[in-house]
Structure formats: C-alpha cells, structure tokens
Amino acid sequence: MTDSLRYPSKYIASLYEHRWEIELGYREQKLYMLGNRLTLRSRLPELVKQELWGILLTYNLIRYQMVELCFNLKGNYLPYQLSFNGTLAHVSALLVGLPYSTPGAIPWSVKRLS
Questions:
Q1: 3-state DSSP call for residue 106?
Q2: What is the Cα Rg of the chain in Å?
Q3: CA-CA-CA-CA torsion sign (66, 72, 76, 82)
C-alpha cells in the first residue's frame, strides 16, 4: 500500500477511523455484554454460531435503542455521547422486570425507557 495514487492517505485515515469504531464495538460486546468471559457457553459449532449471532443481534438492538433515545432526549445528543453500559443496564432491568409486570404496564415501561 505504498502507491499514494492508488491508496490516498485521506482514504487510509478514514478507514482507520472506521476500524477503531469496530474495535470499540468489540470491546463493548466482550467487556459489558459478556462480562469479560474468555469463552462462550456453547460447545457445539452450531450453537456457538447461534450464540455469536445472538450477541451481535443484542448489540445492534442496544445501539438502535441509543439512537432512539437521542431522538427523544431534550438537546442535540448523538448516540456516541450516550453510555453503552448505561443503556444496556436499563434495557436489562426492563427485561428482568417484564415477567412481573401486568400486560397493560409493558408498553408504558418500554416507552419510559426512551
């Protein structure tokens, strides 16, 4: 990648920024979502694949909730200004409490989150 015409430095720098965002996402998944465990619970290849997809889906749903929160908060917040760990804690608390809620209270609980 030494050819500056084929690989302009601005392009390489922008790719590095994206790579760094991906690394931060991996850190959030490993540290906050998996509790810094080094191994997955599943032992069979199919179940490992299923568990990884579950982790990625959950991560993206939490990130989506952060975007929704930004639209509902007063002020001009951007998703990266919110705490991933804090949002994860709020969503987890909501999910833990749902079985103890009456069906009519569930929409209110979800709306209260945002």
A1: helix
A2: 19
A3: negative
